[in-house]
Write a structure and sequence with these properties.
Helix content is 83%, strand content 0%. It is mainly alpha-helical. The protein contains 8 helices and no strands. The protein has one domain.
């Protein structure tokens, strides 16, 4: 049982950080409602669950493989975030005050899930995070199989519950805020996403 709660704390630790995925889930929920935000959050949480499992099975090996490429992985994620934020701003500009259909409005639940799964997957260094927690739990002895399963389930459920909360928060805001404010909030959110990308890029360059 202790391993489950340790996993839950680890899952919250990685999910609660305000990042690009957080902003995008809230933005999507505001524009399309809870169910779409829920599917987006489920995609993100699935990756945390997946990475926690990988870390448990081969965390040390995977961490050692990924760490030498940390800078390249961060650089790739920076360009992905810049592209997402730029597209979001372009989308708002081309839908406000017109009858144009937002391209994302035609995406179904399954596609939204896969999209956010892939967006979250571009940060495989999450494996290193879970690996450090698992390997640091006990020198030599490590976790038993049962403890490992409990840890992974706890991490996955914690991430899933937080992403669901974000979807609900965005949906409530979308129903109760004026349309102009929702557009402004979406624009601001995409600027924040671009900011995350620029910060990663500047760290890489400096």
């Amino acid at each position: 049982m202790a391993a489950f709660w340790e996993g839950a704390l680890a899952g919250f630790g990685i999910a609660v950080q305000v990042g690009a995925i957080t902003i995008l889930i809230v933005d999507l929920s505001m524009r399309r409602g809870f169910l779409f935000g829920f599917m987006a959050g489920a995609g993100a949480a699935s990756v945390d669950f997946f990475f926690a499992g990988l870390a448990g099975m081969a965390g040390e090996t995977l961490a050692n493989v990924l760490i030498p490429y940390a800078q390249e992985l961060r650089l790739g994620s920076a360009f992905v975030l810049l592209a997402i934020g730029g597209y979001g701003i372009w989308r708002n500009r081309n839908t406000v005050g017109t009858n144009a259909i937002d391209p994302i409005m035609v995406e179904g639940h399954r596609r939204i899930y896969l999209k956010f799964f892939m967006l979250t997957l571009v940060n495989p260094l999450t494996i290193a995070y879970f690996s450090a927690l698992i390997l640091g739990r006990g020198v030599g002895g490590g976790m038993t199989t049962g403890e490992l399963v409990a840890f992974v389930v706890g991490a996955g459920l914690a991430s899933f519950s937080w992403q669901t909360f974000l979807a609900g928060l965005g949906a409530v805001a979308g129903r109760n805020l004026p349309s102009r404010f929702r557009v402004f909030a979406s624009l601001l959110g995409n600027l924040v996403v671009i900011g995350f990308g620029l910060r990663i890029l500047l760290r890489f360059l400096l």
